[in-house]
Specification:
two-stranded antiparallel sheet; 2 domains; elongated; 7 strands; Helicase, Ruva Protein, domain 3; 5-stranded mixed β-sheet; Dna Topoisomerase Vi A Subunit, Chain: A, domain 2; alpha/beta; disordered C terminus
């Protein structure tokens, strides 16, 4: 059976969502058209509003419709510790674990030469400026334990080596190739509490 052009267009549009294949997209489209038009209209409205208004926090670069996200604007976070993560989803996972009370910097990706993603695409200059102007004493590199994540972390270690900072990474309770957003709170808690140090600047220059 061939659906009409507009229904086919809706099905194809839904396939932009992660892990949504042709059958899943078809079920979603038919559910919205047959049984939940009010929900579909609301979804379309919120999507349009989100695309127009959601941008990036001026300080940590996570997704928000405000100039500063709620974490960066909170006076109750520890300004001396900064956790560097790859994505807003990783940041949310750490927040939900309840093991961290410092601030964040979101790279919005990882180094990937094959995909054309270099240091200029990940806000490294903004990160350096942040570290030079704010009272940060420790940087936790919480990139994912994938090849790209490890490469990004090593690059950052070199980049931060000239600053008077302690640079640490999460302990290896995290499985190789895993991603933070899919880990349970217990695993994240152990990884945070057992975090290990890269060579600090004092040790390097000492």
């Amino acid at each position: 059976m061939q659906f009409s052009p507009l229904i086919e267009a809706l099905i194809q549009a839904l396939r932009c969502l992660p892990s949504v294949g042709p059958k899943s997209a078809q079920r979603m489209a038919l559910q919205l058209l047959e049984r939940d038009r009010a929900g579909a209209t609301h979804l379309a409205s919120i999507l349009q509003q989100s695309m127009a208004e959601v941008g990036h926090c001026a300080s940590c670069r996570t997704l928000t419709e405000e100039m500063l996200c709620r974490i960066c604007s909170s006076g109750r976070r520890n300004p001396k510790v900064l956790c560097v993560v790859e994505t807003p989803a990783d940041m949310l996972a750490l927040e939900q674990s309840g093991v961290y009370d410092g601030r964040y910097f979101v790279l919005l990706g990882h180094l990937s030469p094959l995909a054309g993603i270099g240091p200029d695409d990940l806000g490294f200059d903004q990160l350096l400026e942040k570290l030079r102007t704010e009272p940060v004493e420790e940087v936790i590199l919480a990139t994912n334990p994938t090849l790209e994540g490890e490469t990004t972390a090593q690059y950052l270690v070199e980049l931060l080596s000239s600053l008077p900072l302690k640079v640490t990474h999460l302990a290896r309770g995290i499985p190789l190739g895993g991603e933070l957003e899919y880990l349970d709170g217990g695993t994240l808690s152990r990884a945070f509490s057992g975090r290990l140090g890269f060579a600090s600047v004092k040790e390097t220059n000492g």
